[in-house]
Amino acid sequence: MKGNDEMKTKTIKMIGYRIEGYVNFNFWGGGEGEGKMQSFDILHPEMTLEEVYEVLNQGINDNGFGVESFNSAYGSIYELYENNVTEFVDDFEIEPTKEKPFKCGFFDENINGRMVRNI
Fold first, then answer.
1. For residue 18, what are the CA distances in angstroms to 9, 38, 40, 94, 100?
2. Are the C-beta atoms of residues 37 and 85 closer than 8 Å to each other?
3. CA nearest to 44, candidates 89, 80, 76
């Protein structure tokens, strides 16, 4: 059997962005904590990084823990490609505001977002 000495090239398509990180929150009944949030995807490859920052708050979540309120979130933004291939783009740190509260994955109608199942 002959080996192939040439490198093969495959192309994968960018399908959006993956967000991973942590949240700082207030417990019901008092006290503060920090936890890993459920990762989420923003399936808009046409968005610029600045546009992703504008909708980031919509996916920030407590991974189903159920907290009284959020104080801040921080983590990383990755470009997301087919077959779950990711490439690091930037780190983020944000705080919720009255205009942009953390929405726990309840994305606006015009945003195609999804929560990533933890394995």
1. 24, 11, 6, 16, 20
2. no
3. 80
Q: What is the pTM of this model?
A: 0.89
Say if residues 102 and 96 touch (Cβ distance below 8 Å). yes
Burial (Cβ within 10 Å: 0-12, 13-18, ≥19) of residue 56? buried
pLDDT over 70, % of the chain:
95
Other CB atoms within 10 A of residue 64 CB: 11
Question: With 60 as the cut, is the pLDDT of residue 1 above it?
Answer: no
| Confidence band, pLDDT 50/70/90 cuts, at residue 99 | very high
